Amino acid sequence: MSAFDKYLHGVIVRAMAEAQDDGSETIDAHHLLLSLAADQGSTAQQVLASVGLDRAAVREALDREFEHSLSMVGVSPAAYDLPGPSRASQQPKMGASARLALERSFSSARKKDLRSAHLLLGILQAQIGTVPRALALAGIDQAKLADRVRQTLISQEQ
Predict the structure, then answer these.
(1) Which of 6, 4, 35 is CA-nearest to residue 18?
(2) Could you give the CA distance from residue 124 to residue 102 in angstroms, rounded to a whole number?
(3) Mapping DSSP to helix (H, G, I), strand (E, B) and coil, where does residue 84 land?
(4) N or C: fewer beta carbons within 10 Å in the chain?
(5) Burial level of 22, CB count in 10 A (0-12/13-18/19+)?
């Protein structure tokens, strides 16, 4: 098993724990983003931190996106005493958004050249979904952040 395979396994295990804590039956792209943001010292974590996105800030952005989505259908979490999510009892499976993010990551470089920043780039390349909405609500320009990741990858290759 390569070093990147071990790294990816760790990212997925953390994302699985995030999904379980959310009560989700699937690991989605936003769970992968939370995992990367929590991975102290990785390039992906450093790029996210450079725009103010540590794990807590990503969680806050995702919570804000959830509240915004509810408000779009006329539900205000402040008006109701909504219970928190129940921890998922079963091991979450890989969801479509996470699979697509991983596929985009893997297509961006040869396997031996893959790094954490490639995973982040695969997540940031999504045009629709929870992650783009959460980043927009947090005031993060997703295209600029993706460009920053690309520049970081280029500088690491030199």
Answers:
(1) 35
(2) 11
(3) coil
(4) C
(5) buried
